[in-house]
Every structure is written in C-alpha cells, then in structure tokens.
Amino acid sequence: MKRKTALMVLTSLVLSCAAGVPAMAASWQQEVDGRYWYLKDNGSYPADEICEIDGKKYLFDASGYMLTGWQNFKGHTYSFDETGAMRTGWYQDGNVYYYLNEYSGEMTTGFQDVGNYTYYFNDEGKMQTGVIEVNGLHYRTLDGGQIIKDKKMKINGVYFSFDSNGVTSVYNKDYKKWMTVASNEDQVDEVKYKLEDDLNSGRLTRRQFEDEARRKLTQMDVSTAEINDFIQEVFDSYNWTYVPDQSYYEEMLDTWNSQWED
C-alpha cells in the first residue's frame, strides 16, 4: 500500500496548499499485480469495509484491496462476483443453490421464506431438497426445494400429512394415530425388535422380514438409509448378504412426484 499512502500524503499537501482547487474524481485503481482498490474523491480509500460504489456493494480488505468470491466478514458470509460486486438473491454454484439476502447480501441459513414458499438452507447455506430432518422433525420438499405445507397424500399405502409449517406426520396403522418423527422413535425401536424376533423365531422368512421391515418402517417415516442399515445389521448377524433393492425406492420417488399437485 506504499503507492496509496504516498498518493494520500501528496493529495493532502496539494489540497492544503491550493485552496479552491476541485477535488479529484473518484476512480478504480489497479496495482501491477492485478489487484484493485478504490480512490475516493477526497483522496482516501475504503479498507476493511463494505462500500457502495455506483449502486453496487464491494468488500475491501484491511489493506484496501477489493475481494471476490465467498468471504466471511464480521460474522456473516457473502459472495462477490468476478468484478467484486456483491451477489444478492438466488445464486447457483454448480448444482448447489444459495439465497443471499436481497438487501444485506448475507448468506441465508435455516428456514427462509422467499416469495410464496419456504426453503431450508443448511449451516453452509446450501438449499436442501427431499426429506429434511431438523430438531427431530421431518419436512419434505418439491424438486425445487419448496417445503410442502398444508397437504395430505397417500404414497405406496402410507399416509402423509404436512402441517402449516411443513412438519411431516405419518399415520401409523398399528397405533391408529398420526405421529411425527419425534413421537415415533420409541415405536420404531419396538417395531425393529419385533421384526428381528419374528425372524429369529421363524415366524418370518428372510424375504418376509425384509419386506415387512421396509413396509412398516417406511410407514413410520424412517429414512431409507436407516432401514438399509437396520436390515444390513440383522443380515450381518446371520452372515447373509444384503443388496438394497434400489428400484423399490426409485418407484416410491416416481409415485411421490406423480401424486403431487400444485
């Protein structure tokens, strides 16, 4: 920053010795290494701050150089394009979507209303889709990330209900009531124990056990990964090989998408 410091000193001397001389025009300056900084009309420059210039916001480091890309500044995360201008609103980076506050540019995390829909962004600001678990509760989204609310539907024999906040409940036929995931955990453990006991006693064959585990646990809104892990664990105890039937889950997804109505 020697060049900038010298420029500021020179400017100060000139202004102090030449009353009535117009201030210099503010302009972007570029160093020989390609970095940019901004010369204000009073001869100073922004440093360690977000500064609005010609209707766009830019971030400058402690030395006064403009920054680009993802940046953390005073506890918040921002994104700046290749020209240094702050991004706002929806931003797609590869296959990942982010939402940057349209006024402050801060990266959004958690639940966020955008337009007429609610979305969920993880701690890294990435928009989540599919089944989302937050504080023990499940939510589901459309392909575009919109959380489903105020809806009931039946998918492969399982009844789902989504309240005004999007919290998912499933109708448990065995207990004859609607259950959220949080209230369902004890019953899930009980069902797993009963399934394994039925397999051990011979009341269920290997194939019947797998089908019943998938049917009953899906009905209780247990994730596909957890169901696979449970079946794998049981099969491992018998030294059996378990290969998840992916077509079953693909069929469920197709059914889900086909039954959704705006």
Automatic annotation (TrEMBL):
Upper lineage: Bacteria, Bacillati, Bacillota, Clostridia, Lachnospirales
Cell wall-binding repeat copies, ranges: 108-127
Keywords on record: Repeat, Signal
Secretion signal, residue range per the UniProt entry: 1-25
Entry annotated with the keyword Signal: yes
Pfam families for this protein: Choline_bind_1 (PF01473), Choline_bind_3 (PF19127)
Listed name of the protein: Putative cell wall binding repeat-containing protein
Keyword Hydrolase: no
UniProt superkingdom: Bacteria
